[in-house]
Amino acid sequence: MAVDEIPKSVEYPLGTGMRYESPESIEGAVALLANSGAARILAGGTDLLVQLRAGMIEPELLVDIKSIQEARQITSENGGYRVGAAVSGAELGEHAALKQTWPGVVEAVELIGSTQIQGRASLGGNLCNASPAADGVPALIAAAALCTIAGPEGQREVAVEEICTGPGQTSLGKGEFVVSFFFHERAPRSGDAYLRFIPRTEMDIAVVGAGVNLSLDESGVCSAARVALGAVAPKAMLVPEAGAALVGTRLDDADLQAMAAAASAACEPIDDKRGTVEYRVKVAGVLARRACAIAFGRARNN
Amino acid sequence: MSKSKLHVATTINGDSVEFLCEPQQTLLDVLRDELHLTGSKEGCASGDCGACSVTFDGRLVCACLVLAVESNGHKVETIEGMADGENLHPLQEKFLEHSALQCGICTPGILVAAKALLDIDPDPTETRVRYWLAGNLCRCTGYDKIVRAVLDAAAEMRAN
Amino acid sequence: MATSTKSVSESNDYKWVGTSQVRPDGVDKVTGRASFGADLYAPNMLVGKILRSPHPHARIVSMDISKAEALSGVKAVVNKDDICDLPSEMVPAGEMMVNYRDITRNVMAREKALYEGHAVAAVAAISESIARKALSLIDVEYEVFPHVIDVVDAMKPDAPLLHEDLITAGVEPAPEKPSNIAKRMEFSQGDCQAGFAAADVIVEREFTTKPVHQGYIEPHACLANVAEDGKAELWCTTQGHFIARGHCAKLLGMDISKLRVTASEIGGGFGGKTVVYLEPVALALSRKAGQPVKMVMTREEVFRASGPTSGAHMRIKMGATKDGRITAADALLHYQAGAFPGSPVQLGCMCAFAPYDLENVRTVGYDVVVNRPKVAAYRAPGAPIAEYAAECVVDELAKKIGIDPLEMRLQNAAKEGTQTVYGPKFGPVGLVETLEAAREHPHYRAPLGKNQGRGIASGFWFNIGGESCATLNLSEDGTAHLVVGTPDIGGSRASLCQMAAEELGIDLDKVHPIIGDTASLGYTFLTGGSRATFATGMAVVEAARDVIDKMRERVAKTWDIPVDAVVWEQGFARPASSNAGAFEPMSIAEIAAMANKTGGPLVGNAAINAQGAGPSFGTHIVDVEVDTETGQVKILRYTAIQDAGKAVHPSFVEGQMQGGAVQGIGWALNEEYVYGEDGKLQNAGFLDYRIPVCSDVPMIDTVIVEVPNPTHPYGVRGVGETPIIPPMAAITSAIEQAIGIRFNELPMSPPKVLAAIEASNSAVADAAE
Fold first, then answer.
1. Mutate which of A282, A287, A290 to disrupt the C interface (most C C-beta within 10 Å)?
2. For a 10 Å CB count at each end of chain C, is N or C smaller?
3. Who's near C169: CB < 8 A, 6+ residues apart?
4. CB contact under 8 A, A17 and B50
5. Are residues B11 and B41 in the same domain?
6. In this complex, is the C-beta atom of B53 within 8 Å of any C-beta atom belonging to chain A?
7. Residue B77 maps to which CATH number?
8. Nearest-CA residue of chain A relative to B72?
9. C466-610 domain in CATH 3.30.365.10?
10. How far does CA C11 lie from the centroid of its chain?
C-alpha cells in the first residue's frame, strides 16, 4: 500500500496535518498566526513537544519564533535589559551582566529541568505554558518584568503577572505572542533570589517556588520588596502583603517571620502527587524566608 | 491534511545530511528510524531521562524534544561522532577503564553530556559534574564510577 | 570521597580472575554501536501497538475489531483469540514461579481487565500513526466493577473480587468462598511463645511499603518475524531468552524449537525482564500479518503495564534479653501480587530474619491480589522489604537495650552452621566479616553534626544456580570463541572470559564471548538470582577444562605418550615430568593448528545444573542530614560492604554494590506508585516516579570481603541482589538518629518527614505545658 493511498481519516498522533513555519520577522509571525486556526508558538519546545506527543494538543500550525531576532537577543535598553522570549536558559546563564544584575531571574530559569532542557527552554515558553509551578514566573513577577506582546493590533506591554490566568491559560489574545521581556534599570542596593522546593535535588517540578526582589535605602532599611510564589495557587502570584511586611524594616528575624507568615497565608494550593496543601503552605513560608535572606545578602553587596 | 513531507538539510557529526520528515517527527525519531543512527536511545520521549542526548550547535539537548525540521541548517552531534576513527575519545576510554557502565543504555547520552561539560569547563568539580548530569538517568551504576570517569577524563585532557 | 575498593584478601593468586579488565562489549557500548531491543529494523517491518484497558477492573463484554482490520495500512489485529488459553501450570521464571494460566491472561486479557493498562488487543500496521488510529477503532464494551488497590482493603471480606475461583491455598480447612488472598504460607522453627516469654525487651511494629518499579532505562522492545511455515525468530531485550522462548511457544501453541530467540543487549532488567509482555503479542501479530512486527513500549506503558514489585503491610515482633541476645522473631507479611497471584512473599518469609542465628522463628506470608499490574521480580524479590522491616526492629531493640546496633548484629549473626528457617544450614558465609569490616571502617567513627545521623543494616540473599551451558570453540589459530547463554546485564561477559582465560592460561584478548541464541546453545536459565558469574562461570570453567583435556589427548597422541603424562600449565601442554620425555611444550595455537590432523575440531562443552550457590551477606553504613524545615533527607555518605566469595572482576562487583545501594536509596526516600481514587496510576513517567539522579547521591564507597564459596572453582558468590536490601533500614535508622523520629513506612518523602517532625514538635510542646 503506497503512502499516498492513506485515507484522509488518518490522524497523525502529533497534530492533524500540522504545518511548521519559521518566520524571520515579528510581522511574518503575526501574519501566519492571523491566517491559521489553532496555532502554537514554538520556542524551546520542551513543553510543547511533550504535549504534542501525548496528544494533549493538536495544532494546525507551529510557528517557530527562533528565527526572529527580537525573540533571540539580549540587549541593554534604557539602563535595563530586553531579553528575547526565545532565549534559552543556557544562554541566559552565560550572559554575565544579566546574571550579575538579576541573579534571581537567571537562577530561576536555570532550575528549569536538566542541562538538556536548559539548552532549549525559554522564559517565554515557561511563562506562556502557564504551569502554576513554572520556575521562571515567580522570579519574573518579583522582578516586575514587563512582557512585550505582538499581535494583530500591534505591540503592547503588559506586567508579567497578568499573563497567566490559570493552569495552562494565558490572557494572550488570538494571534498574539510574547516577543520579549523588559527588566527595568536596577536601583542601587537591590537584590533578587529564587528558591524552589523539590523532593530530589534536580529534575522535579517545583512543589513550592519563591521569588524575592528587594531594595535597600542608604541606611540599610528595605525600601521596596516584591515576593512572588509559585506552585501554591492556580497561577504564580505576587503576594503584596509579604512584600509589605518587609518594607521599612531591617529584615530582622521577626520581620522575615512576618513575611513568611504572610506568604503562607496567601497560598491556595492543592493536594496532588507532588505535595499536600499543608506541606505547600508550610514550605512556602520557609522558602520565602530563605530566598529573602539571599536577596538581602545580594542587595547589601550591590 | 498535509501529505507533503518537509525537506531538511543539516549537518550530523560533520557530514551533510538531507532527509524528508513530517513536521511532528522529532530529531530522535529521524536519527533512529530514518538515518539508522541508533546510538541515541529513547528512554522516555519526554526529556526526563537524557538517553537521547545530542548536541545542537554545540548545545546539549534532548533529541526527543527537538523537531527534526528544526535541525535544518544547524549542526547535530551524536554519540556516533564522538570517537575519531579508531581512536576513542578520552571520555570513552575512561568509561571503559573505570567500569562506568553496566547495561550501557544510558552510556551514549551520558558521554555526549559529559563531553558537552568538558567542552566548556575543563576542570569541573564533582558537584558540578553531578548537577550537569542530573538529566541523565542511570539505574545500574549508582553514578559513582561515571563521575569518577568524567573527572579522570577531564584530568587527562587537561594534561595533554 | 576518593576511596574505592579495599579487598580483604590481600593477595590475588590469579592472572585474570580478580582483576578488573575492560569488558569485551565495552567499545560497542561507548560508541553507540551495541544493539539493544529497539535498535533492530527489518525490511517490510510493521509497527505493533497495544490497546490497553482504561479501567482498573472490568469484565470485557465484547470486542469488535472489524473497523480496525479494515483500516488501510493495518495488516493484523489480535486479541485473546490469537493467544492460547492455558490451564494452571507453574514454571520457574527467575527466582519466582509463574503460572501459565495467569501469564497468558496478563499478556492478553481474556475474561477481565484487571488493571488500568492491561492489554486487551493489539494491531500491526505500516506506520505508528496508522497503528494508533487502528487502536482507536477497536470497540470494547466493558462492564466496570469496583476496584481495590490496597493490600489491606483487598483482604477484607467485602472487597471487590478479582478472580471468582481464587480459593486461598495453604489454609486448612480450605475456605468455602473465594477471596483475593491467593495463598498463605508459614515457616517456623523452635517455639516463639517460649522465646518471647524469655525476652527482657520486646518490640512489635507494623510497616507499610509501596510498590516500586525496577526503573530500567530501556523500555521493553522486540522484533518478531514468523514465516508462513510457522518458523519464527524473535529479537528481544530480555534477561532470559530461553525462558522467553518457552513462554512464547506455549502462548502461541508452537513447538519450542520452531522459535529462535536472540537476546539483544539489555538496557537494564533487575528482574523486570524475566517475564514476557510484548513478545507473544508481536509473534501473534507477525504470524497473522506474514511480516516482521516491531513493538516498543513507551515509558508510560512500562509504568502502567509492566511489573513493579510488591508493596506490603507487615508486622514484625522480636524479643531479646537485656544482653542483646535475640530470643524470638516473628513476621507477618501481606504482599500485594498485582492482578494475578504470585508475589514474592515466600522469599520474604525465608529471608526476613536470615542474617540472624535464631532458635525461635516464625514467618507467615499472605499473597494478595489487587487491581494493579502483576508484580515482577525486582532484585532479590521479596527480600528487601521483609528485611527492611526486620532490620528496623533490630535497630529499635538495640537502642532500647542500650547496645550498639552493630554489636547486637555481631552477637546474633548468622554463621556457618546456622539453621535457617527455610531448611538448610549455612555453609561458610561472610556476614560477620562484613560487620567487622563495618566496625573497622573510618565511616563508622566519623563525626556527625546537627540534624545528622548514621544508620547501619545488614542484608542477605540466597543467590541461585541453575542450568547453564557453555561452549568453547577453538579456532585454527588457537583463539577461542566462548558461547554462553546468560544475557550480559552488568559485565558478566568479561568475568566469564577472565575465568576461561585463567583456565586456559592464555591472554584475555584471545577469548571472545558471544551470547548464543536459543538455537546455538543448550538450554540456559535466565540472568537473575545473581547467577551469571556463578553458574555460567561454573559451566565456562567446565567447558575450558573439557577442551584442555581434549588438547592433552591430542598432544599425548602426537608425542605418543599416555595422556596422564601430559599436563596443562599456563597455556601450554607439557610433559608431566622428564620421565615422560623431552618434548617441547605445545601452545594452544600449535595444538589448534594441528587439530584436523589429530582428530578434528577442538570444542569444549558443558551443560550443567549448577548447585551450591553461596549466599551473599552485606552490611551498609549511611549518614543522612535532615532539613527539619522541609523534611528533605540528604544522603551525606554511604559505604557498602559485601561478601563476594571471590570477586572475579572487582570493579564490576563494586558496581553491583553501588547500583543496588542507590536503588535502595530511591526506595527509601522517593519512589512509589501514586494512584488516584479511580484506580489509575498518576505518576507513569520519570518526572514523577522519582528515581535518584546523579546529584542526589554521593560517592558510594565499597568494601569487598571474600569468604570463598567452596562449591565454585573460584569461590564465587553471586553479588548482584544483596546490595538493594540494607539501604532502606539503614536510612530509617540514620533518620532516627538525626531527628529522633523512627519511620515505619516507605518512602520517607519530604511531606511525610515534615509532618512527622511537626507532630513530634507539637507533642513536645504539649508535653511541656
1. A282
2. C
3. C182, C183, C184
4. no
5. yes
6. yes
7. 3.10.20.30
8. A22
9. yes
10. 31
